[in-house]
Structure formats: structure tokens, C-alpha cells
Design brief:
heterodimer; A: about 70 residues; mainly alpha; 2 strands; elongated; B: about 1100 residues; alpha+beta; 6-stranded antiparallel beta sheet; 5-stranded mixed beta sheet; about 10% strand
């Protein structure tokens, strides 16, 4: 076990937390940064970060056992 | 350009292009050169998720609720993170079991149940119909919108009110049916990938992404000044500002519900299951898809908000439903005909891809889980393969036209997104049964049925029913007041709870009922034996295929006939012949038990591919006369492992047995350092433990042949000295050369001759070879033979056998190292002793030399002092007394002179000696006639002999005796010899000097008739300062250096100086020198 599977579960859990109430409510406000609403920036930012994390982790080889 | 015919022809050309791609890829696949075996294609094919609903509907939903469209894509991104566990396991199971659909998967998991498979199929068909309707609606309406160019409509014509032949949705349905049949239903084997289809879908995914990005870039940067500009303008309009964030009506419940629904949809939508699981060429592609697919989703959503707001700003008065078509209408209003057409093609790609894959997946389910079980129950009596394939084609048409009907019913009343979500919620009902099936052994068929049923009813009541209400089919009071006026049964506020959002209402209640019923019923029902077996295969590692159904008295012909009924005669014949050829079975009547097993499994697999696993099982069972039974005649060396509840216990026992065996073997290996005893211990243990008939260990000898070094089971007097060459002609040779385990379960099928040391003995029926290795290098082979039974070598056994061989290699290596170490230390001891002897010898010689040196110094001092003393005393007498008579004085002076001469001669000799020894002597070599030299020396010393009265005779031959030598030195040697002879020969004696050539050597003999030398002192006379015996004179004349110096000189010339002597009779000194060939040539006489 390289632990990649476990790390991916952590990514999943953290992603699910960041993309739901109540964390989401922090950013759900009428404000903009450089002309772009904070909510949009936040959601797309979390999205990109999640993909990047999976990209980095999934380079590990498959384990033999599931 | 944007006329009806223009649009239709572009669309048709595009679709024909898709046909061409599919055709080309399929042809390449038949040639064995797959084009779709790539993680990129796999990820793109998964993007069939993005339908026209994404392409048009995301914008519509963004207009309605800002970021509310995003959960549909965030959910799959989250789910993709879990694919590492879930999808990989699903793909493995599906491949091992020839799974054809999600219905097949669930049916197979819960005891190969046709009932459960059928229920899943029905739920899916009902649940997906709205989704297909949605695609038809999108194609139809976008066509209508495009057709109105240059006008940009904000009000859609009701196309459904036209006669069907003029209805674009109808035309699209026909076209899609044709496409689906061509790619999905050419033959029955649905477990196989349809490569052309996959490639087409991947291509369409690319087109729709590019089209959407093109429109997005155009709107954002062509029509407006970038995203900030759009957001800025929207923010200035108070009626839209809430969409930018902080919307008080934002429902976090719906947000979470939609995320959950889309997470499930990416797994369970029939088309997703088809693409992700059935369409998977390699497991490892999942790793790439885990991030590449979310990247696709991100890209296709990047411009949704800019387009949505761009549309709102451009068409401020448009009704909400037309927001779905902003992607199309924005380019149109800017008169970008090409871009609008591109967007339309993108939409077509999204819609057609979905409908085709979905209809194929659904038709497979309908066929395998509804149609075939019906046929099987009725008993298939004739060839129904043609009927089956036509049923499948019909099923494709039926699913698409069901969608068309739904579209007509309620198509206009919903936005695209809402229709799609109804389908999402339906397939999400599979989640508990699916995940429970993957990870919970205790889950039962009854539990799965209860959960699915409960969840589906809630779904139908809370989502499907209201959609009928909205279309006017069902009275509205049902939704607003509840059935029969019972308020707490209102579908959209179930149990009177109004706090949940529209979607979270359905998701929460259906999931709650589903999970509870599933878990509760599972816990209170007992699984059947088959269910337990299947549970083990799904929850455990899906490696070993299940034993096939036992069908007694089944001949290959009957089996072939049976399979042909379902898959067609020609194809079946071909497949069976290929099977026989692959197993090298010439006559099917004489098959071994192993072959029969394999044939049964093959038949089951073939049937599974065509009609699903549950049906295949049922069909084979229908053939058996008695009660269907799973049987296990395969002889597992670890004992019979039943595929039932006992399995895990059996597994455990087997592991314990393996480990204790390994432990015992290791103990025996470690117990001794004698390789023979070690090997004997292991082979006897293995024979006793596994009841093999013969165990043998072959090791490679120095001559390169493999010889049996140890065995258990051969007669004791067997001649094993012959050995076999290492070559690929034998299985053990191949095992040795390739360094891998080779097992042959049926020796009748062996491709190589079997080499056994006892030719007369019965041949083995099964055998296995494992290489014995030392540091990855094979040194021999461990073999086990069974000649009484066919053995099924389980992977666990092979693993154990290999481990044993490795252990053996380690043991042999240890023994070898130990033996080498012993040899080495003995060798070392011998060398130390030898060297010690040498050192002792050297030391002794050094001491001797040291003694000699001391002797030398004292002798020299003594010898020098004797003449000095004489000189001094005589000189003192001369000085002291004038009274010494004159003649006495003269006498004294004569002695002094004589002693001084003796002194200087001695010193000269010493100097000569040291010069010779140090190699500093100067030699003047010249060609000489030895006779002449001898004569000269004799003349010089003549007086000496005369004075003593000794007769000297010199004789020589007539021919010259040429030598290459230093004249003075040779004369000195001769003088020395002559003076010695004179010294030791009494008066009246004689001395003879002869010069001759003997044995090709120039030789001079000096023979005297003197006192001779005692034999024990013959060698000593050549040592320094050895004056042998008493001289005849009162005191020795020399320092005893003459002979040693002479010998040095002669040896320097390459000659020898030896002496023979008999005491009292005289001595014979013999000097030899090498003959020079050309004394004359050098001009010397």
C-alpha cells in the first residue's frame, strides 16, 4: 500500500467539505475580486486544485490489491 | 446558408463523417490494430456525460440560478477521485464475469438473479426515457431556432403540433435509431467493445467542446470586453446582481442533492456504465481519466456564466425557457452564421452521442434482462439467434421512440436541466445495492430488491408524477393539495416537510427509504448459496472464474447446438472450432476432464456475452437433467475449496497450511549445510504433503547438463548420471532458461516430449517446474509430477511452489558458500605454513650469511695481521739495533719485502673479489686460443715447480681451442691453479696440464700427485678463507681467496671450475669454458 488510495479518499472528503454548506456559505456573497465574483473564483479555484491534487496522486502505480 | 436544406445537409454530412470514422476504426480493430486503446480516447468517451443538456441547458440553468448548474459537474469530479477504488474494482469484476450492463452487474452480484436484473432494466428504461426526450427536444428546437435566421426568436414555435413527418424531432429519432442499430446491434456479443462507436463518441466529445469554447470566446471577447466587463455590467443591474453571489434564496440542500445525484449519475447512467466499464480497454486508463475527465468538465463549463450573462444583457426581455438557446442565438444576433452552425453541430454531437450510447446500453439491458429470460423460461427449442438480434434492434428503436413520446407529452413545459435531473434521480437508486454489493458480503438479493423498489417508488411519486402534472395529464390538485386532499402526501413536500428544496426532497426521501430497506432486509434474510458465492466473487478479489454449472452427460455437440440457438449457427461453429484449436483438441469425443471444464466455461462466457450472465446461467442449468448443482471435480492440491459460505474459513485453513509447510521446509533447509541432505529433506516433505508421485531436483553441473541431484519417488537404483542438456526442448529446460514457473495440467496436451529418467514408468499426467535461483540466476529446477490424477495447480500453489524453490536456492547457496569458505581457510592455512617455512629458511640463511661475514672479517683481519706483524717486528729490530750484522739486515729486509708483497696481493684479491661481486669488474673479452694462454701461464710459473722439484708437463692438441675471454683473468685463474698444485705436491711429484676440447667445451685439466682433499671438504675449498688442511709449507701463502675468485671469474665467462680428488693420491682441477666459434674470424691466432 503506497497510501495513494487513502490520500485520494482525503482529497474526496476535503473536496466534499469545501464544496458544500457551511464552507461554501463563506464565499457566497456579493463581492468581486478583479471584477470576478468571489463565489465563482472560489468554486473554480477549488475545482482546479482538486484536479491538480488527483493529477499528482494518480501518477503512482496501481496497487496490486484493492 | 442557414436555410432548412443548408442546415440539414451540413448535419447529414457531419453524421456521415461520423459513420466514416466509425467504419474506419472498426476495420482497424478487426485487423487487430486498435485505435481507441488510449487514456485520452477513454476520457473523451466518458465525456458522453455532457449531452445537449450541458451544451445548451447549463446556460439556461445559470440564468435561472447563477452557479446552480455547477454541482452537475462538481459531483462527477468528486466521484472521479473515488474511481481509484470503485471504478477499478467494477471494471475488474465486469471483465472477469463478462458483464454487459449495470442491470447485468447487479443481477449477477445478487445470485445471478434474472428478477433483479429485470427490475433494474425496467427502472432504467423508465428513468432514462425523459433524458432521451430531452435530447430529441434539443435537436428539434435548435433546428427551429436556427431556421428563423436572420430573425432571432424569443418565442419558440410549438413544433410538436405539426404532423410527425414534418417534425424535426421525429426525423432525428429515425436517424439516431439507424445509427444506434448500425453500431450497437450488428451482432449479439455486447460484452465486446464496439470500437467504432467509442471512437465516434470521443470525436463528438471533442467537437462539442471546441464548439462551446468557440462560442464562449466569441461572446466573452467578441461581443463584450472580457469576463470582467460582463460581470461588471450585470452587477450594475439590480435584478441580476443576486446571481453573482449572496442570493438569499440559494438552497444549500438542493446544491448538495444535485452534487449527490450527479455523483451517482456518472457511475450508473447506462451510457456512463457502458463507456467507463464495458468500454474500458485497460484498467490503467482510469488513472488518467481521473483527472483528464474533470479537466474536460471544467473547460466546457468555463464560459457558461459569461454566455448566460451575455445573453441576459443582449435579450433582457426574453422568457426564461429561451435562455437554453443563448449558445445559438448570441452568434445569430451578431450575424455569425458559421459560428451558429458550428454551435448547432456541437449540440448535435452532444445529443446524438448520448442517444446512441444510451439506446445501445438500454437495448442490451432489455434484451439480456427481459427478453432472453422470457425465452429461457419458455424453453428455447429452435434457433432464436436471429430473433434475438432483431429484438435488440427493436429495443433500440423502442427506447428512442419512448423518448420521442415523452417529449411530445411534456417536452415544452420543462427546461432542459430539469428533465435530465429526473433521470439522474432514477439511476441514483442503484447506489445502495451497487456499493453494498461491492463492499458488503452480507447484502442479499431481497435487500437489494426492497431498496430499489422503495427508492424507485419515491422517485416516481415525487418527480415523475409532478412532471405529468405539469404537462396537464394529471390534475394539478394532486401536487398542490395532495392525493385525496391529504396534505402530508403532497409529492413535493412529502410528509409535510417544506424545508427541503425541490431536489433534496426526492433525494433525501428516496435515499432514506432505499438504504433503510436495503440494509434491514439484507440483515433479516439469508442469502442462498449462489448469492454467497457471487458475493464472495464481487466483494473479494475477482480473480478466479466461478466453476461452471455442472451438466452431466453433456456432449460438445449438444453444447454447441445450445449456444447456437442464441448466438447463431455460423458464429458458434467458428467460435467452437477456434476453442478446440486453441486447446489442441483434435477429437472432441476424447476430451479430458480439464477440457470439458474449460469448454463449459467457454460456453457460459460466450452465452454471457450475448445474453447476460444470469441468463447464460439459466440456459445452461436448463440443460442439466437433475437439479442444478455447482460441481468441482477440479482437484485442487490444497484440497477441495468449495465456492460456498465455507470459503473464507477454507481460505484461512489453506493459508495456515501453506505457511506451516513453508516453515517446515525452511527448517529442513536451515537444519543442515549438506546440500544433499537439504534437498532430500525438501523433496520428501513435498511428496508426503501433496501426494505427488515424483519430486525431483535438477541442478546444472559444470558440464552444463541438468542432472537429478535429489528425488523422492524414483527407484533407488535409477541411473541419474546421464543428465539432460539445458534447452527449450524440455519443459524444465524452458523453466530454467526463462526463469519462470511452468505448470502443465494435462500432459496429453503437452507440446514437448516429456523427459523422464525411467522410460518404462507410467508417464505423468500433470507436472510443474519451478526454477531454483541464486540471486536471480537459475541453478536448477524443482519439479513435481503426478501420474495418477490431473492436478489443477491453483495460483496459490504455484506461488508456494516457487517460494519453496527460492528457499531451496538460498539453502544451496548457503551450503556452497560454507563449503567454499572451508576450502578457502584450508588453502590459507597451507599457504601460511609454506610461507613460514620459506621465511624460516631465509632467516637461517641470513644468519649463516651473517656468520660468514663475521668469519670473513675476522679471517681477513687475521690474515692481514700475520704479515703486518712480521713486517713490524722485523722493522723494529732493524730500527732498534745497529749491532745486527749486515747479512742479517738484508735477510730481514727480504722478508719485509716478501710480506709486503703478500699483503698487497691479498688486498688486490680482496678488491678483485668485491669488484666481481659488485659487478664492477671490467672485462676485456677477446678471441683467444686457450692452448696459447695455458702455455703462457705455465711458462710464468715454471720456476715455481723447478724450485720444488716437481715435474710439470703441458700438453695440448694440434688444433686451436678458441674461447672468448679476458686473457689476464684466465691467466690469473690458471696461475692460481698451478700455484695451488705446486703448493700441495711434495717434491718429486708431478703436475700435468692438459688443454683439450671435451663435450664441446674448451677444457683445461690441472692434475697433481699431491696430498689430495678430504671428500667432505671438496666443496669447502671454493669458499672464502677456507684453507683446507695443513699446507706443506709452514704457513699458508694466500688468504684462501684464490679458488673462490677463480670460480667467480670462470663462471662469469660461462664456464665451470670443479675438482675431483682422492685423499693421498692427488687432485684434478678441471676448468671449462664455452667454445667460441670464430676465434680466427676475429683475427686472433
Amino acid at each position: 500500500m503506497s497510501g495513494v488510495g487513502e490520500k485520494l479518499i482525503l482529497v474526496f472528503v476535503v473536496g466534499a467539505l469545501l464544496l458544500n454548506f457551511p464552507v461554501l456559505a463563506i464565499f457566497n456573497r456579493a463581492a468581486t475580486v478583479m471584477g470576478v465574483p468571489v463565489l465563482y473564483l472560489y468554486l473554480f479555484g477549488v475545482w482546479v486544485a482538486g484536479i491538480a491534487a488527483v493529477f499528482l496522486l494518480a501518477r503512482a502505480p496501481w496497487d496490486k490489491e484493492t | 446558408m442557414l436555410t432548412a436544406w443548408g442546415i440539414v445537409s451540413v448535419a447529414l454530412v457531419y453524421v456521415l463523417g461520423l459513420f466514416a470514422i466509425a467504419y474506419y476504426v472498426d476495420r482497424r480493430a478487426r485487423e487487430g490494430r486498435s485505435l481507441i486503446d488510449s487514456p485520452l480516447i477513454y476520457s473523451l468517451s466518458l465525456a458522453v456525460y455532457c449531452t445537449s443538456w450541458t451544451f445548451y441547458g447549463s446556460v439556461g440553468r445559470a440564468v435561472a440560478s447563477g452557479v446552480g448548474f455547477l454541482p452537475i459537474y462538481l459531483g462527477p469530479t468528486l466521484m472521479a477521485v473515488g474511481w481509484w477504488w470503485v471504478l477499478r474494482k467494477t471494471v475488474r469484476i465486469a471483465k472477469a464475469n463478462n458483464i454487459t450492463s449495470i442491470a447485468d452487474f447487479l443481477g449477477s452480484r445478487y445470485g445471478q438473479s434474472t428478477l433483479l436484473g429485470g427490475v433494474v432494466a425496467v427502472i432504467t428504461v423508465v428513468g432514462i426515457t425523459p433524458y432521451i426526450a430531452l435530447q430529441l427536444k434539443a435537436i428539434s428546437q435548435t433546428f427551429e431556432v436556427l431556421l428563423q435566421y436572420p430573425a432571432v426568436t424569443t418565442r419558440l414555435a410549438a413544433s410538436a403540433s405539426r404532423p410527425f413527418y414534418a417534425d424535426t424531432a421525429f426525423g432525428a429519432a429515425i436517424l439516431l435509431t439507424a445509427f444506434g442499430i448500425m453500431f450497437g446491434a450488428r451482432d449479439l456479443d455486447s460484452s465486446r467493445r464496439h470500437e467504432g462507436l467509442v471512437a465516434t463518441i470521443a470525436f463528438e466529445s471533442l467537437v462539442k467542446l471546441l464548439a462551446f469554447l468557440a462560442v464562449g470566446v466569441f461572446v466573452t471577447y467578441g461581443m463584450f470586453g472580457g469576463a470582467e466587463d460582463i460581470f461588471g455590467r450585470v452587477a450594475r443591474r439590480p435584478e441580476y446582481a443576486r446571481m453573482l453571489g449572496g442570493d438569499p434564496s440559494f438552497s444549500y440542500g438542493d446544491w448538495a442533492a444535485l452534487t449527490w445525484l450527479s455523483m451517482m449519475a456518472i457511475m450508473f447512467l447506462p451510457r456512463q456504465f457502458h463507456m467507463a466499464v464495458i468500454g474500458n480497454t485497460r484498467e490503467v486508463h482510469i488513472k488518467t481519466a481521473m483527472w483528464m475527465f474533470p479537466v474536460y468538465l471544467l473547460l466546457i463549463n468555463l464560459f457558461v456564466l459569461p454566455i448566460a450573462f451575455g445573453g441576459l444583457l443582449t435579450f433582457p426581455t426574453a422568457p426564461a425557457t429561451t435562455a437554453d438557446y443563448f449558445v445559438l442565438t448570441l452568434p445569430m444576433v451578431q450575424h455569425q452564421q458559421g459560428l451558429a452552425l458550428f454551435a448547432f453541430i456541437g449540440g448535435i454531437s452532444a445529443a446524438t452521442g448520448m442517444v446512441i450510447v444510451e439506446s445501445i446500453a438500454l437495448s442490451t439491458m432489455i434484451l439480456n434482462n427481459l427478453v432472453v429470460p422470457w425465452f429461457v423460461r419458455r424453453g428455447a427449442t429452435r434457433d432464436i439467434s436471429a430473433l434475438l438480434i432483431n429484438s435488440k434492434r427493436l429495443a433500440i428503436a423502442v427506447t428512442i421512440f419512448l423518448g420521442y413520446a415523452y417529449y411530445h407529452l411534456i417536452g415544452e413545459s420543462y427546461t432542459l436541466v430539469n428533465i435530465g435531473l429526473i433521470s439522474f434521480a432514477a439511476v441514483a437508486q442503484f447506489a445502495p445495492a451497487f456499493f453494498g454489493g461491492l463492499y458488503w458480503r452480507r447484502a442479499t438479493k431481497a435487500g437489494a430488491l426492497a431498496g430499489l423498489g422503495g427508492g424507485f417508488l419515491i422517485w416516481a411519486y415525487t418527480l415523475l408524477l409532478p412532471s405529468f402534472v405539469r404537462s396537464g395529464w394529471v390534475p394539478e390538485s394532486l401536487v398542490t393539495l395532495g392525493p385525496f386532499g391529504i396534505a402530508w402526501l403532497r409529492p413535493e413536500q412529502l410528509f409535510g416537510v417544506s424545508g427541503l428544496g425541490f431536489w433534496s426532497n426526492t433525494v433525501f426521501w428516496s435515499l432514506a427509504f432505499n438504504v433503510t430497506a436495503f440494509a434491514l432486509v439484507s440483515l433479516y434474510t439469508r442469502p442462498s448459496a449462489l448469492e454467497s458465492a457471487q458475493a464472495e466473487r464481487f466483494v473479494g478479489e475477482p480473480s478466479r472464474p466461478a466453476a461452471p454449472v455442472g451438466v452431466h452427460g453433456l456432449t460438445p455437440e449438444r453444447l454447441e447446438e445450445l449456444v447456437a440457438k442464441f448466438t447463431g449457427r455460423e458464429k458458434t461453429q467458428e467460435a467452437f472450432q477456434a476453442f478446440f484449436a486453441a486447446r489442441r483438441i483434435g477429437d472432441p469425443q476424447t476430451m479430458t476432464e480439464a477440457d470439458r471444464q474449460a469448454l463449459l466455461q467457454f460456453a457460459e462466457r460466450t452465452l454471457s456475452g450475448a445474453v447476460g450472465t444470469a441468463s447464460a446461467q439459466a440456459i445452461l442449468e436448463s440443460l442439466g437433467q437433475g437439479a442444478p448443482a455447482r460441481f468441482e471435480t477440479i482437484f485442487d492440491v490444497f484440497g477441495k475449496v468449495s465456492q460456498s459460505l465455507e470459503q473464507s474459513r477454507e481460505d484461512l485453513q489453506r493459508r495456515v497450511r501453506e505457511l506451516s509447510l513453508l516453515n517446515e521446509a525452511t527448517r529442513r533447509i536451515a537444519a543442515t549445510l549438506d546440500p544433499e541432505r537439504m534437498m532430500d529433506g525438501v523433496v520428501h516433505l513435498l511428496r508426503q504433503e501433496f501426494e505427488f508421485d515424483l519430486l525431483a531436483i535438477r541442478l546444472r553441473d559444470e558440464d552444463g547438463r541438468l542432472r537429478i541431484k535429489s528425488h523422492a519417488g524414483l527407484p533407488p537404483d535409477t541411473d541419474l548420471s546421464g543428465g539432460d542438456p539445458v534447452s527449450r526442448d524440455t519443459y524444465f529446460g524452458e523453466c530454467f532458461l526463462d526463469n519462470r514457473v511452468i505448470a502443465v495440467e494435462d500432459a496429453n496436451l503437452a507440446r514437448k516430449p516429456l523427459v523422464l529418467p525411467t522410460p518404462g514408468a507410467p508417464g505423468p499426467r500433470s507436472f510443474v517446474h519451478a526454477p531454483i535461483v541464486i540471486e536471480e540466476r537459475p541453478i536448477g529446477v524443482l519439479s513435481a509430477y503426478s501420474s495418477t490424477a490431473h492436478v489443477y495447480f491453483s495460483p496459490e500453489f504455484l506461488q508456494l511452489f516457487r517460494t519453496l524453490a527460492v528457499q531451496l536456492g538460498l539453502g544451496i547457496q548457503n551450503a556452497q558458500l560454507y563449503r567454499e569458505l572451508g576450502d578457502l581457510s584450508r588453502e590459507l592455512e597451507r599457504k601460511v605454513a609454506q610461507r613460514t617455512g620459506q621465511l624460516e629458511e631465509a632467516n637461517r640463511r641470513l644468519q649463516e650469511l651473517d656468520r660468514l661475514k663475521s668469519d670473513f672479517v675476522s679471517t681477513v683481519s687475521h690474515e692481514l695481521r700475520t704479515p703486518l706483524t712480521a713486517i713490524r717486528s722485523l722493522s723494529e729490530s732493524l730500527l732498534g739495533g745497529d749491532d745486527i750484522p749486515r747479512e742479517r739486515q738484508a735477510q730481514f729486509l727480504a722478508i719485509i719485502t716478501q710480506e709486503s708483497q703478500r699483503l698487497s696481493r691479498m688486498i688486490n684479491q680482496l678488491l678483485d673479489l668485491s669488484r666481481i661481486e659488485a659487478g664492477k669488474m671490467e672485462w676485456r673479452l677477446e678471441g683467444l686460443d686457450l692452448r696459447e694462454v695455458v702455455a703462457q701461464a705455465a711458462r710464468t710459473n715454471e720456476a715455481l715447480f723447478e724450485g720444488r722439484g716437481i715435474a710439470l708437463s703441458v700438453s695440448a692438441g694440434a688444433v686451436p681451442v678458441p674461447v672468448l675471454a679476458d686473457r689476464d683473468q684466465i691467466i690469473q685463474v690458471l696461475t692460481n691453479l698451478l700455484s695451488n698444485a705446486a703448493k700441495f705436491t711434495p717434491a718429486g711429484g708431478r703436475v700435468a696440464v692438459r688443454t683439450l676440447v671435451e663435450d664441446a667445451q674448451a677444457t683445461v685439466e690441472v692434475e697433481d700427485s699431491g696430498v689430495g682433499i678430504p671428500p667432505e671438504q671438496v666443496d669447502a675449498i671454493f669458499e672464502r678463507f677456507r684453507q683446507v688442511g695443513d699446507t706443506l709449507t709452514a704457513k699458508p701463502e694466500g688468504a684462501g681467496l684464490g679458488l673462490p675468485i677463480s670460480r667467480e671469474i670462470v663462471e662469469h665467462h660461462g664456464g665451470t671450475l670443479t675438482v675431483k680428488s682422492r685423499l693421498g693420491q692427488g687432485s684434478n682441477f678441471r676448468l671449462t669454458l664455452p667454445l667460441a666459434s670464430s676465434v680466427h674470424a676475429e683475427g686472433v691466432d
